[in-house]
Amino acid sequence: MQNISVKFDQNHNVEFYRTLQKRVRAYFKENNISKYANTNMVIKTAFMLALYLVPFVLLLTLFQNSWLIFLMWVIMGFGLAGVGLSIMHDGNHGAYSKNKNVNKLVGWVLYLAGGSDTMWKIQHNVLHHTYTNVTGMDEDIDPGKVMRFSPHEERLSFHKYQHIYAWFLYGLMTILWITSKDFKQARRYAKLGLLETQNTTYRKMLVNIILTKILYYSIILVLPLIFSTAPWWLTVLGFLTMHYIAGLILGLIFQPAHVVPSSNYPLPDESGNIKADWAVSQLINTANFAPESGWFSWYVGGLNFQIEHHLFPNICHVHYKKLSKIVKETAAEFNLPYQSEKTFIGAIATHGRMLKKLGQQDTL
Q1: pLDDT tens figures, 134-181
Q2: How far apart, in whole angstroms, are the C-alpha atoms of residue 93 and residue 104?
Q3: What's the rounded mean pLDDT across residues 111-132?
Q4: What is the pLDDT confidence band of residue 1, given thresholds at 50, 70 and 90?
Q5: Are 159 and 147 in contact (CB under 8 A)?
Q6: Is 22 helix (H, G, I), strand (E, B) or coil?
Q7: Does position 4 have pLDDT exceeding 60, yes or no?
Q8: What is the pLDDT of residues 89-117, one digit of tens each?
Q9: Phi-psi label, residue 291: left if phi above 0, alpha if psi -120 to 50, beta otherwise
Q10: CA 131 to CA 138: how far, in whole Å?
Q11: CA–CA distance, 51 with 246 (Å, rounded to integer)
């Protein structure tokens, strides 16, 4: 990661975002609605938490058949992904409530997944949302040597197969969260001075990570090993399966929104300046998918409307579908792109083609 101050050009095509912000504010004012969570969002919160926690209680207490218990772990995987996509995400963006304490509480749901909300905020809010698809700054396109998500990274011989093996690796996402990732990030962010953005220190962060992970493993893994009637190996397998399902879902939702042929992967010059307006860069480096799929959008926390989310991350996702019409029309007025795949399968296919291209070509 570059230890420089990257800045976007504030004098280049800035009228688009000014106009868009004005129209979005007018939408909420004219309809007399809050930009935060509504009743439907509260109901969804309860449902997603239940989808994760109720199967856990059942496998601990009521169910005795081993394979029925394993099924509960599978359901928990979908619940875990839903909690992350639909609840934790809004909370840690400050988009769930105008009350900061409520947002903090909702954001803490990430501890139920074995992750750190502080590390997530730095990687996602500070780096990914600010420097979307900027090589060396956006960690979401820096999975290490194993995959090549950016044309500005070195292409290795085995990358030509990444469009085949990437799907397997996506499932490891939350397994890395609960093991090594938070520790590595804490050390790296401390060196870069990024922990200061969250008003903490490396020592405090390390203690927090260790204690919360001990608590997480004690509840989610140790309790089933003690109280579940399933054999220990099936409990461990169920635990890993839960995380694999959740990781795969998260990977399939986030990567097709940015690692796509329409992205231009902006590069800063030697002074750290990018010759593009921030909001326009978000349009170019982000793509929507399945905009008409109601149930799908509901489950993934509106993150199929990634363009709207990147332009307005502090607005609750329940409003994104309505805002998408405003964003699309405004983009057209300014002759700017608005990328959207009709279906989720189409987005996966497009992402797969991009992975293949990045793995087989040095430049795009």
Answers
A1: 999 999 999 999 999 999 999 999 999 999 999 999 999 999 999 999
A2: 9
A3: 94
A4: low
A5: yes
A6: helix
A7: no
A8: 999 999 999 999 999 999 999 999 999 99
A9: alpha
A10: 6
A11: 13
Is the Cβ–Cβ distance between 51 and 79 less than 8 Å? yes
In percent, how much of the chain has pLDDT > 90?
92
Separation of alpha carbons 226 and 213, rounded Å: 18
Q: Which pLDDT score, from 0 to 100, does residue 3 have?
A: 52
Burial 168-179 (b: 16+ CB within 10 A, else e): ebbbbbbbbbbe
Domain segments of the chain as ranges: 7-360
Cα(260)–Cα(279) distance, rounded to whole angstroms? 18
Q: Which residue has the higher pLDDT, 265 or 14?
A: 265
What pLDDT is recorded for position 2? 56
Tokens describing residue 219: 């509840």
The span from the CA of 28 to the CA of 36, in Å, is 10
d(C-alpha 180, C-alpha 183), whole Å: 6
- DSSP codes joined into one string, 270-291: TTSEESS-HHHHHHHT--EE-T
Q: List, in sequence order, the alpha helices (H) in the chain.
A: 15-30, 39-61, 66-83, 89-92, 100-107, 117-120, 162-170, 173-176, 182-192, 202-217, 223-227, 232-254, 278-284, 294-299, 306-311, 320-333, 344-360
**Residues pairing with 288 in the sheet:** 340
* Cα 96 versus chain centre, distance: 16
Q: Taking Cα atoms as reference points, which of 222, 247, 235 lies closest to residue 113?
A: 247
Per-chain mean pLDDT for the chain: 95
Q: What's 268's DSSP letter?
A: -
Q: Locate tokens 């170019």: which residue?
A: 284
**Phi and psi for 199 in degrees, rounded to 5?**
55, 50
Residue 124: both structure tokens together: 């996602």
pTM (whole model) above 0.70 = yes
Whether 35 and 316 have beta carbons less than 8 Å apart is answered as yes
